[in-house]
Specification:
Elements (H helix, E strand, L loop, with lengths): L3 E5 L2 E4 L9 E6 L2 E6 L5 E6 L3 H13 L1 H13 L1
Antiparallel strand pairs: 1-2, 2-3, 3-4, 4-5
Length: about 80
């Protein structure tokens, strides 16, 4: 199961339900995919085909919506 948190500008932000316990978010679009750690700070974990421009845009979105993403993680994995 892969619960979606946001769909924004062609990017899908989501979690995998059965993956590691360290907080992170996956991002995918037609241009590629990436994974960002959310703790202890926002940090790129993996990147497949995104340019630096794409990564900067995605990271900024994560920063802007950090509290919402963390809340979604906590709510989803608490249940």
């Amino acid at each position: 199961m892969t619960p979606t948190i946001f769909n924004e500008d062609g990017y899908r932000y989501f979690f995998f339900s059965r993956e590691e316990s360290r907080m992170h978010v996956h991002i995918t679009s037609g241009d590629g995919e990436a994974k960002f750690w959310l703790e202890p700070e926002i940090e790129l974990a993996n990147n497949y085909h995104y340019s630096r421009k794409h990564l900067k845009k995605v990271e900024q979105f994560i920063e802007d919506h950090y509290d919402e993403i963390i809340s979604a993680w906590q709510q989803y994995f608490r249940d």
